[in-house]
Specification:
This is Flagellar operon protein TIGR03826. By secondary structure, the protein is an alpha+beta fold. The protein is built from 6 helices and 4 strands, in the order ββαααβααβα. It has one domain (37-134). The protein binds zinc ion (ZN) (2 copies).
Length: 137
């Protein structure tokens, strides 16, 4: 067992392997995410900045959901989420398809067979809405 810093609150906790958040933050994280899902089912065309404002959830947190492939951006050229390797705009996860294949070449067969993957909730991104996050609450 490793003792690591919680990515959210900075508290030290015992991580069972890959957990990056302490139990308290994990629970809040799940609640926030189901709030986003609910919001998106009521507002199917909601924008990232609307979600952040209306639910008081930091953009950073929404970005993490995107990187974890729990959310997906509808626009292809969003400039919000970029491939960590080549910097191309991506819609979900951490790498574009090309870089993903490059990094996970040996996993190809596994991913071809893994078609039952659930579709992530989709979210809109519109860059000209940026000023809304700068305004005070
Ligand atoms: Zn925490
Ligand atoms: Zn890439």
């Amino acid at each position: 067992m490793d003792v690591i810093c919680c990515e959210q609150c900075g508290k030290l906790f015992n991580s069972m392997g890959f957990f990056r958040l302490c139990p308290v933050c994990t629970e809040r994280d799940e609640k926030d995410f189901s709030m986003i899902k609910e919001y998106l089912s009521e507002h199917p065309l909601a924008k990232i900045f609307d979600v952040a404002n209306d639910l008081s959830i930091p953009i950073k947190q929404i970005k993490r959901y995107l990187k974890e492939s729990r959310l997906e951006i509808i626009e292809q050229n969003n400039r919000f989420l970029l491939c960590e390797d080549c910097g191309k705009p991506i819609r979900t996860g951490r790498y574009c398809d090309e870089c993903y294949r490059k990094h996970h070449r040996y996993l190809n067969t596994y991913y071809v067979g893994n078609t039952s993957k659930k579709y992530p909730s989709r979210i809109n991104f519109t860059s000209n809405n940026k000023e809304t996050i700068a305004s005070p609450r």
